[in-house]
């Protein structure tokens, strides 16, 4: 979980792309600086979309995963609640990657713009993939634990 949180932090603040126009103009963006740039330019809807799906939602997913992993004992009600939240978040799991991908594709369409990818994009993508893996593992383990306790109670 700590590695995942570090990857997400790096992915949000490290440069993800550099745009070069006419060889003279060069802009480098991170997810965070891009979101701040949107709000500075009064693109409130796009800011909410990018910040919500690329910053807030991944942080919420990590927080819920942490809560799931830190549950001790047989707290079935809490376990079910956190699994429900993970199920809801899981529906949006790829949207944060999609947002960054759309940004890159949109920029690459410009004939006079070249795009250079940076390590922030890879850290962000690694965090999303690691979150998906941890989520699948936790759901699998909790499913096995729930079935085992049902079997013990049923016998």
Task: Give a summary of the structure in a few sentences.
The chain has helices at residues 2-13, 31-40, 44-70, 76-90, 95-108, 119-154; strands at residues 17-21, 25-29, 113-117. The protein is mostly helical and 155 residues long. Strand 1 and strand 2 (25-29) form a beta hairpin.
Mind explaining what this structure looks like?
The chain is mainly alpha-helical. The protein has one domain. Helix content is 74%, strand content 10%. It is built from 6 helices and 3 strands; from the N terminus they run αββααααβα. A hairpin with a 3-residue loop joins strand 1 (17-21) and strand 2 (25-29). The chain is elongated. Residues 148-155 have low confidence and may be disordered.
- Mean pLDDT, rounded to whole units? 77
Q: Tell me the series of helices and strands, N- to C-terminal.
A: HEEHHHHEH
Tell me the strand order in the biggest sheet.
2-1-3
* Helix share, percent: over 70%
Class from secondary-structure proportions: mainly alpha
Note the overall shape: elongated
**Could you tell me the strand content as a percent range?**
5-15%
Quantity of strands, as a count = 3
The largest sheet, given as strand count, sense and whether it forms a barrel, is: 3 strands, antiparallel
Any low-confidence stretches, pLDDT <50, length ≥5? 148-155
Q: What's the structural domain tally? A: 1
Tally of contiguous helical segments? 6
- How far apart are the first and last residues' alpha carbons, in Å? 36 Å
Please give the radius of gyration in angstroms: 19 Å
């Amino acid at each position: 979980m700590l590695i995942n949180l570090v990857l997400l932090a790096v992915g949000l603040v490290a440069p993800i792309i550099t745009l070069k126009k006419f060889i003279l103009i060069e802009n480098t963006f991170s997810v965070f600086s891009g979101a701040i740039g949107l709000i500075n330019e009064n693109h409130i809807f796009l800011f909410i979309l990018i910040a919500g799906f690329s910053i807030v939602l991944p942080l919420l997913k990590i927080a819920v995963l942490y809560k799931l992993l830190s549950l001790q004992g047989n707290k079935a009600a809490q376990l079910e609640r956190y699994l429900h939240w993970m199920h809801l978040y899981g529906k949006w799991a790829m949207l944060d990657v999609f947002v960054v991908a759309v940004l890159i594709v949109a920029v690459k369409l410009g004939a006079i713009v070249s795009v250079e990818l940076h390590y922030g994009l890879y850290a962000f993508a690694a965090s999303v993939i690691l979150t998906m893996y941890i989520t699948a593992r936790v759901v699998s383990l909790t499913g096995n634990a729930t079935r085992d306790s049902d079997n013990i109670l049923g016998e």
